[in-house]
Amino acid sequence: MTQTTEPVLKTNLPLAGRRQGKVRDIYEANLTDGTPVLLIVASDRLSAFDVVMPNGIPQKGVLLTQISKFWFDMIGEKLSDQIRHHLIATDAQNVQGLSDEDKALVQGRVMVGHKANVVPIECVVRGYITGSGWKEYQKVGSICGVELPEGLQQCEKLPEPIFTPTTKDDVHDEAISFEGACEVVGTEVMTKLRDLSLTIYKMGHDYAASRGILLADTKFEFGLTDNGEILLIDEVLTPDSSRFWPADKYEAGRDQDSYDKQYVRNYLETLVKDGQWDKNYPGPVLPDQIITDTLAKYIEAYEKLIGSKAPL
To answer: What CATH number should be reported for the domain holding residue 193?
Structure first.
C-alpha cells in the first residue's frame, strides 16, 4: 500500500476516457492480455450534501477500496449463484500504459473492473429508519411510497428491510418509487435489482452484526453487460455508501454514533445552523480534528468488520 500521509485529491493517469465523480476518478484501459476494463480510483476526497469538501481524509480511498474488496470476495463466495460483480483487482499491475509510479499511486485504492452500462438507479435498502427516510416518515408515514407502521421511533429497526431507490445524478439524487424506477429501466430488470439488493443487504447486515456493527442502510449500483447480464459495480457496503452503527451504543429514539461520514455531516450542520455555510459549493475547509476523528472512524470500521489491522 502507498504510505503517503498526504491525501490523494486528484489523479491524472495517462489513460483514455477520464471522468471525475465526486470521489472517484474513472479511466478506460486494457489489461496486458487485451481485456478492456475500467479503472475506478478512490481518491481521498470527501463529499457531503453532494458537495466535495476542499480538503480530504488521508488514505480514505484505500480503506474504502479494501472494505469493498472484502465484501466482493464474500459475495463471490456466498452469492455466486445469484450475482456477478465487476471487481478483477485492487492494483493496476496488469494494466497497460501505466508507469511504476502510476501503479504505486493507485495501489490498493483502485478497482479494476469489467465494463458495464450503468443502470441509472441507485438501489437503496433501509433496515432502520433514519436520515432522509425518518424525515419523510414523520411527514407522510411512508418512505418512497412504502407504507410503514405508525409510531416508529427515530433509528428504530424496521419490521423488514425496505427498498427505496433513487435516481442517479451527478449533482443530486432524488427519491423515486419502485414503480417510478420500473418506468426508467423496465419492470423485469428493476425487480431483479430490488431482490438482489435485499439479498446482499441481509447478508451484509448479518455478518456486520456478528462483528458488533449494525448496518442501518446502504446503496448499491448495478450495470448491464452488452449481453444483458447484471453486474454489481462500484463500491459496496462501505462507510461512504452505508450507515454503520456500533451495536453496543445503539438506542432507538435518537441519533446514533456512526462509523460513516455522518460525523462530518453533523459538523457541517452546525455550520449551516450558525449561518456559516448554505450547503452549496464551495464547501468549507474541514478542521484538522474533524479529519483526524473521521479517519479514526474509517479505520475502526475496517478493523471491526475485517478483523485485521488497517492497510495504512
So the answer is: 3.30.470.20
* pTM, 2 dp: 0.92
Q: In Å, what is the CA distance from 217 to each residue of 81, 165, 202, 242, 312?
A: 24, 12, 10, 6, 27
Q: How far is the C-alpha of 220 from the C-alpha of 125, rounded, in Å?
A: 8
* Structural domains counted in the chain: 2
The residues of the chain scoring below 50 in pLDDT are: 1-4
Distance from the Cα of residue 296 to its chain's centroid? 18
pLDDT of 215 reads 97
Examine residue 9 and state whether it is found in any structural domain, yes or no: no
1 in a domain, yes or no? Answer: no
What is the pLDDT, as a whole number, of residue 3? Answer: 39
Q: Where are the alpha helices (DSSP H) in 141-230?
A: 178-185, 187-210
Instruction: Give residue 169's domain range.
Output: 118-262+296-306
Whether 268 is in a domain gets the answer no
Is 63 in contact with 310 (CB distance < 8 Å)? yes
Cell of 82: 445469484
Buried b (16+ CB within 10 A) or exposed e, 214-245: bbbbbbbbbbbeeeeebbbbbbbbbbbbbbbb
Residue 47 in domain: yes
Q: Strand, coil or helix: what is 142?
A: strand
Q: What is residue 230's predicted lDDT score, i.e. its pLDDT?
A: 97
Per-residue pLDDT at 171? 57
Q: Please tell me the distance from the alpha carbon of residue 100 to that of residue 106, in angstroms, as a whole number.
A: 10
